[in-house]
Amino acid sequence: MSDAVRSVRGINDVLPAENPVWARLERVAAEVFATYGYDRIRTPIIEHTRLFERGVGEATDIVEKEMYTFTDRSGDSLTLRPEGTAGVVRSGIENGLFHNTTQRLWYSGPMFRHERPQKGRYRQFHQFGVEAFGPTGPDVDIEQIAMSSRLFTRLGVSGLMLTLNTLGTPEERRHYRAALMAYFSEHRESLDEDSLNRLERNPMRILDSKNPELAEIIANAPTLEDHLGDESRAHFDGVCQGLDQLGIGYRINPRLVRGLDYYTRTVFEWITTDLGAQDAVCSGGRFDGLVARLGGSSTPATGFALGTERLVQLMTAQELAGDDVSPHAYLVAADSIGTPRISAIAEWLRDQLPKLRLRVNTGGGSFKSQFKRADRSGARLALVIGEVEASMDSISIKPLTDQREQASVALTDAPALIDDWLFASAPAE
Ligand code: ATP
Ligand code: MG
To answer: Which residue stretches of 326-382 are H helix?
Structure first.
């Protein structure tokens, strides 16, 4: 063990024991996105570094210090994607997906950021994300917030709060930025090193600071509200009214600025008090300027990304059941029957019952030890072929978890009985 190769810091396995909750989240998310008419897109994990420099923004934590960037053997600078939106936009432009049509897309997969690993913060983590391209109005912002809310409800997750803000247009932000710069410059001596760095480059990001010593200065900083034009104001009012209509509660947080550079107008975050410092589970907003910035023709867009590990952690803390992915049945057979016949019977059962998750005992052993393995597998049934069964072309079906009498039936009758016992009264969902 001592010279065994270990995993990379902050880059973790998802072990089989954690799989049920992951599987449930993956299944329910795909179902919910489909019910809103979103199509899945799969983009590469590796992209040109300049995609993220342009797409995420040079003055962001991600680009400044979190990217996994390397030069490949052809001398190209490549980066493991730190987020999903830039790649989706790149692909949409490259493949003409945005021409004269609304696109509703979703993605899921690993992202990479070189951050300080801690609970809820990893160097490889996973996101589910959705993006809509084309619509300008608040309706699609509302649709996506409702969709995230529905996902949490379907999963049974509770205690998430929606916070909401508007970042206006780039023009409005420029005025605001100047006001902020003036304000924070007056308080220069109280700022920490991080904030001083942000002051010149991107003063809005100071509002994002997690340093408690800056809380008061940040609380008294000017807000963007005073710089909003009529259209931005109307858009934000539209989002709020739509959420009111749907009965989705929210809190407006004028300090919510989001780490990424590309947002315009609506931004939102679902946060929880149950995950300690890593409190954001899902965040998103509108990014009307990004497609043009990455070389496409101007296309309004809006989207969100949710952190899979944080949602899994929340589901686990709230003791929400995962999907049952253990075998339904475990095949126990006497050694004398021989592998060819055992595997022929197993294959035949799988032919007859396509839904059946059947694990076949390997390596022989006494019935006692085989039954122990059957119990450990989580299977509901043991299918037993002893010498008596083999001589009569029959099989014994022994419930391992249900209160039911064991039955011995002709092999040809077994599929109907197994189907009845396992699937007849299968609960919905
Ligand atoms: P944070 O403020 O926690 O760093 P962020 O603003 O950087 O989050 P986004 O880039 O908006 O996060 O990503 C969307 C979601 O992805 C977050 O709300 C969070 O749930 C999750 N996430 C972000 N970074 C990590 C990470 N390093 N490890 C695990 N999950 C993460
Ligand atoms: Mg971050």
So the answer is: 339-352, 367-377
